[in-house]
Amino acid sequence: MYTIEKNLNKLSHNQPTFFLDPREQEKLKKKLKKNTYKIYKPYIDSEKNIFYIKQEPKIILYEIKTKIPLEHREILGTIFSLNITSELFGDIIVDNNKYYIYVLENIAPYIKTNLLTIKNSHIELIERPIEFLKDYKKEFETLEIITSSNRIDTVIARLIQTSRQNVSYKIKNKEIILNYEILKNNSYFLKENDTFSIRHYGKFKYIGIKKQTKHKNYIIECKKYK
């Protein structure tokens, strides 16, 4: 709740908020009157966005130049290793072996100075115009699975072809993030547009139940972020 109060305070002083993930955005909306704020989206379907009233946020878009392929989790982990909190940077984009990150202007010099290597390989940050990716749309791989339930442990077990017992282990080991929070309840029933990440397996969006089979199982659709 502290995060929401902190951002409400910034808005009350006519300052843009920090970057907010979808869960935080929904909580903040409940605290605000309709039509009293605007939402700054760096690109069409960005997940992490900024609320503001009049003063638009100042953000920087960096392209991460590297000679080796990178994964989203590797970039994210390196940023966190610099003691940078998630509110200070926006989405990390991985697109056809090109890598980008949005950051608040006031943290950009620190990141430029300190983010020098990822996976023990030298990288370079190149500033791009903020409009550079404004039309970028995320790509997904559509997956259909047959399960007995839309309970999250059942769905994940089918997605990564493992046992529910192994999924329980991953939950206990804090390897699964649901809607930007560590998953603690393996009996959670997924809702449309829930997003979840599985360490080493990637990020997924739950679309919903398409239909029921003759044997009373469910055909479930998910999308995997590319």
From the helix content, strand content and strand pairing, which structural class follows? alpha+beta
The CATH superfamily of the largest domain is identified as RRM (RNA recognition motif) domain
Biggest beta-sheet profile: 6 strands, antiparallel
| Domain unit count | 2
Specify the CATH architecture of the largest domain. 2-Layer Sandwich
Terminal residue distance: 32 Å
User: Helicity, in percent?
Assistant: 10-25%
Overall form: globular
Average pLDDT level: 94
- Main sheet: which strands, in order across? 8-13-12-11-9-10
- SSE order, one letter for each helix or strand: HHEEEHEEHEEEHHEEEEE
Would you give the CATH topology of the largest domain? Alpha-Beta Plaits
Task: Summarize the structure in words.
The protein is of the alpha+beta class and 226 residues long. The chain folds into 2 domains: 1-137, Alpha-Beta Plaits (2-Layer Sandwich), CATH 3.30.70.330; 140-225, Structural Genomics Hypothetical 15.5 Kd Protein In mrcA-pckA Intergenic Region, Chain A, CATH 3.10.290.10. Helix content is 24%, strand content 33%. The protein contains 6 helices and 13 strands. The chain has helices at 2-12, 22-31, 72-81, 108-114, 152-159, 164-172; strands at residues 38-40, 50-52, 59-66, 89-95, 98-104, 117-118, 121-128, 140-147, 176-178, 181-182, 195-198, 202-212, 218-225. The strands form 3 sheets. A 6-stranded antiparallel β-sheet has the order 8-13-12-11-9-10, with helices on one face. Strands 4-5-3-7-6 form a 5-stranded antiparallel β-sheet. The protein has a two-stranded antiparallel ribbon with strand order 1-2. Strand 6 (117-118) and strand 7 (121-128) form a beta hairpin. Helix 5 packs across helix 6 (164-172). The radius of gyration is 19 Å and the shape is globular.
